[in-house]
Amino acid sequence: MSTHHYDPAATVRSYLMVFGALMVFTALTVAAAYIDMGAMNNVVAMAIAITKAVMVMLIFMHVRESSPLIWLTIASGVLFFLIMVGITMIDMTSRGLMGILGK
Amino acid sequence: MSDTATRLQHHFANEEQQLDASTFGMWVFLVTEILFFGAVFCAYIVYRTHYPEVFAHGAHHLDVVLGAFNTVVLIASSLTMAMAVHSARVDEQRDLARYLVGTMFLGLVFLGVKAYEYTHKFHEGLFPGNFFYQADDAPLQRLFFSIYFTLTGLHAVHMIIGIAILAVILVQAMRHHYGPRWHTPVEIMGLYWHFVDLVWIFLFPLLYLIGRHG
Asked: How many helices (H) and strands (E) in chain B?
């Protein structure tokens, strides 16, 4: 990352703004949990969590000004997590479809 | 004194490349951490898909107020950690020490609340062990609490390790080891601390906030 154009005031301002946004989203996710939206409750909770996570990574973890190598590294981590969950769920949800012993 | 001396190792072209290499190495470690926690999250997804009512029932034994309080505490600790890294970059030595102490303090508050919650669960017989108490109206409750204690326990272990490393960095910071030219351990520690915060950002809604409506 480049430290040549480091702006102290702008950096502190961005940290405080992210902190404020994280507080607002925390309040939102608690409030949303008490409203019955059916299956949408999970979607809303995860959408808020992912938004918070992206803000933490981009600003607090300096990913915004990091090299493409760092972006690729993070993407590979997320990809392999999705592969692990995806293949596991394909297995778990399809076991009953075939009459295989010991399923 | 140490900031004027170069910390550049001979196998790097310059200090910027050296910091990039350290940052990349830390992110590779954090990817293994994503998959480490990911395995337990995977178990969570499998079992919650099969037994949604068990999870909704189990979550009612958790205290939303304490969970939300700890979320706020941990996000605040992420802010102080980010400010500590910033202080090292702009050579504010006193602020660096203050923000490191603040981060450790907030981490300890989080663990204190967690210890209170755990004690309460032990007394209620909700810890999956010899004294687990299976309420009649809550079949398979052991399943939810096995996953709850595994996820929050692993998370708490990461916090304890983080606070221990912060203590070492604090001592070094008070000896003015870090400044604008060299503060790699503070940067790397920041990445670790924010990662622990990231895990909790997902744990809070997945454990405390499910099945609250209706």
From this structure: 6, 0
Q: Which residues contact A92 (CB under 8 A, 6 or more apart)?
A: B46, B49, B50
Residues in CB range of B185: below 8 A, 6 or more apart: B169, B172, B178
User: Distances from the Cα of B212 to the Cαs of A76, B64, B148, B158, in angstroms?
Assistant: 34, 9, 17, 28
Q: Touching check for B168 and chain A: CB below 8 Å?
A: no
- How many contacts, defined by CB atoms under 8 Å, are there between A and B? 134
DSSP characters for B97-149? HHHHHHHHHHHHHHHHHHHHHHHHHHHHT-SSSTT----TT-TTHHHHHHHHH
Mutate which: B36, B188, B209, B210, vs A, most A CBs within 10 A: B209
ipTM: 0.91
Structure-token match 């004690």, residue found: B119
User: How does pLDDT run across B129-163, given as a tens digit for each residue?
Assistant: 777 776 656 667 888 999 999 999 999 999 999 99
Q: Is B109 on the interface with A (CB under 8 A)?
A: no
Residue B12 DSSP class = S
Flag if A16 and B78 touch (Cβ within 8 Å): no
Nearest to B46 among A26, A52, A88 (CB): A88
Cβ-defined contact of B31 to A74 (cutoff 8 Å): yes
Residue with tokens 């392999």: A80
> Between chains, do B38 and A53 touch, taking CB under 8 Å as contact?
no
Tokens of B151: 């996820």
Instruction: Tell me how far the alpha carbon of residue A87 is from its chain's centroid.
Output: 20
pTM higher than 0.90 for the full model?
yes
B84 and B103 in contact (C-beta within 8 Å)? yes
**Partner B contacted by A2 (CB < 8 A):** yes
